[in-house]
Specification:
This protein is an alpha/beta fold. The chain has 2 domains: 118 residues, 2-Layer Sandwich (Fructose-1,6-Bisphosphatase, Chain A, domain 1), CATH 3.30.540.10; 111 residues, D-Maltodextrin-Binding Protein, domain 2 (3-Layer(aba) Sandwich), CATH 3.40.190.80. The protein is built from 7 helices and 12 strands. The strands form 3 sheets. Strands 1-2-3-4-5 form a 5-stranded mixed sheet, sandwiched between helices. The protein has a 5-stranded mixed sheet with strand order 7-6-8-12-10, sandwiched between helices. Strand 6, helix 4 and strand 7 form a beta-alpha-beta unit. The radius of gyration is 18 Å and the shape is globular. It catalyses: adenosine 3',5'-bisphosphate + H2O = AMP + phosphate. This is 3'(2'),5-bisphosphonucleoside 3'(2')-phosphohydrolase. GO terms for molecular function: 3'(2'),5'-bisphosphate nucleotidase activity; metal ion binding.
Length: 256
């Protein structure tokens, strides 16, 4: 399977979007094929990963890849360009009939920072990309809305919501929660339980392109293509609520 049949080769941002959408189509076809439960989860992770690896080998053969479903190759640490992908973000939601809150993440890290990315929501027919970034409008809600896991809201975010008198907005995968800030369904996604680089690279690149704030909880930069791909925490927030979020974080820390 190929992506983008136009004569001119796609830009990195176009390729990220094309691959996320195409992998999503593969996942939708697989989901309609009769598998259920763990079998569907495993097949989705594997099939999307294999598709993305083959497509990147075709379109960017010189680049390194860091994928959730692939063996980590230390050669990426000395590479100039590294694609960071999550072939299926939200396997639980993907395996539940009718759910659309799962995603495909494709991002490119180059020379020290994220430079392109896309988050596709195949079952919703939506892709968010740095190729065509959405301009975020000011929030019109009086209460801060925090995106939170629908199945296991962490104690930390519950405490933060109490301090801020914020509204919790439950939803599925990490990418979906991050994109809810872009679309205006929430005002911030604050995560303190740790994630891997592939969980946030594409969402962070899209959020930045849309004008959102992205950082660690302490305000330090989010770093990618690190030897250990574990990221302890992050904030994706609309600029208008950032000061309020920071005061809330300080209050939570003081209460612990």
């Amino acid at each position: 399977m190929t992506v983008n049949d136009a004569a001119a080769p796609p830009t990195d941002a176009q390729l990220a979007s094309d691959l996320a959408v195409a992998a999503g189509r593969v996942l939708l076809e697989l989901r309609d094929g009769g598998l259920t439960g763990k079998d569907l989860k495993d097949a989705g992770d594997r099939t999307s990963h294999e598709f993305l690896m083959a497509a990147l080998a075709q379109h960017r053969p010189e680049d390194a890849v860091l994928s959730e479903e692939g063996a980590d190759d230390a050669a990426r640490l000395s590479a100039d360009r590294v694609w960071i992908v999550d072939p299926l973000d939200g396997t639980r939601e993907y395996s539940e009939p009718g759910r659309s809150d799962w995603a495909v993440h494709v991002a490119l890290w180059q020379a020290g920072d994220l430079v392109a990315g896309a988050v596709a929501r195949p079952a919703a027919g939506v892709v968010h990309s740095t190729d065509d970034p959405k301009v975020v409008s000011p929030t019109e809600h009086e209460r801060v809305r925090l995106a939170v896991s629908r199945s296991r809201p962490p104690e930390f975010v519950t405490e933060l919501a109490d301090v801020l008198d914020a509204e919790l907005v439950p939803m599925g995968s990490a990418g979906v929660k991050a994109m809810s800030v872009v679309t205006g369904e929430s005002d911030a996604y604050v995560h303190a339980g740790g994630q891997y680089e592939w969980d946030s690279a594409a969402p962070v690149s899209v959020a930045r392109a849309a004008g959102l704030h992205t950082s660690r909880l302490d305000g330090s930069p989010l770093l990618y293509n690190q030897q250990n791909p574990w990221l302890p925490d992050l904030i994706i927030a609309r600029p208008g609520v950032l000061a309020q979020i920071r005061r809330g974080l300080d209050a939570v820390a003081a209460n612990r």
